[in-house]
Design a protein that fits this description.
The chain is mostly helical and about 200 residues long. About 65% of the residues lie in helices and about 5% in strands. The chain has a single domain, classed as Four Helix Bundle (Hemerythrin (Met), subunit A). It is built from six helices and two strands, in the order H-E-H-H-E-H-H-H. It has a two-stranded antiparallel ribbon with strand order 1-2. The longest helix has 30 residues. The protein starts with a helix and ends in a 9-residue tail after the last helix.
Length: about 200
């Protein structure tokens, strides 16, 4: 078995694990009433870009080998590093969902009895879910020995992040006011102590 094939297998296992983590929280969230929704076309575009870049397009590459022109020789260090980064992404993703609990939503929504969460990964960054997506994209870049399939994850994340994060923060400021402003002052957006 080639190093590139091992990277693809690790990526597939990571995507399955991502869905296994997300599914129960998605089911539970549907039972909690939405008090305010800011769904928009840009929200849908961002989610679609992330899904395409982190799952659909690399999945097509793994299944078909297309686009073969962008293939390069896989290296053990790259697959190892990609696996560690992807595992860290999954750990962050799970911790984020656990901390959010009933507050979690796939789109920009305030749920009944919504609370500001500041513990766990939220003590370090305001948007650890986005941190997990960034880590997934970087892990994918190292796992898949194809420039196109590797890069689309980071690009899909970037579209989602830049279309949504400011809107999300405005919604939190509207709902939580000075409490969220103070939280913003003591945390970074997605990279602890940096950004």
């Amino acid at each position: 078995m080639s190093v590139a094939s091992i990277g693809e297998i690790v990526w597939v296992i990571g995507i399955i694990a991502w869905y296994v983590i997300r599914y129960p929280f998605e089911r539970r969230a549907k039972r909690v009433r939405v008090m305010s929704s800011r769904r928009s076309a840009s929200d849908t575009i961002g989610l679609a870009a992330a899904l395409a870049g982190l799952a659909i397009l690399p999945g097509l590459y793994v299944a078909t080998g297309i686009p073969a022109f962008a293939d390069y020789t896989g290296r053990p260090w790259s697959v190892g590093l990609g696996g560690v980064i992807f595992a860290l992404a999954l750990w962050t993703f799970r911790r984020t969902h656990k901390e959010l609990g009933r507050n979690w939503s796939i789109s920009l929504e305030i749920r009944e009895k919504h609370q500001l969460i500041c513990g766990g990964p939220y003590a370090l960054v305001r948007h650890p879910m986005y941190t997990s997506f960034l880590l997934m994209g970087v892990g994918q870049l190292f796992l898949l020995s194809n420039w196109v399939a590797g890069l689309v994850g980071v690009l899909g994340f970037a579209v989602l992040f830049f279309l949504r994060v400011s809107k999300e923060e405005r919604l939190m400021l509207e709902f939580f006011g000075p409490e969220y402003r103070a939280y913003m002052d003591r945390t970074k957006r997605i990279i602890p102590y940096i950004y």
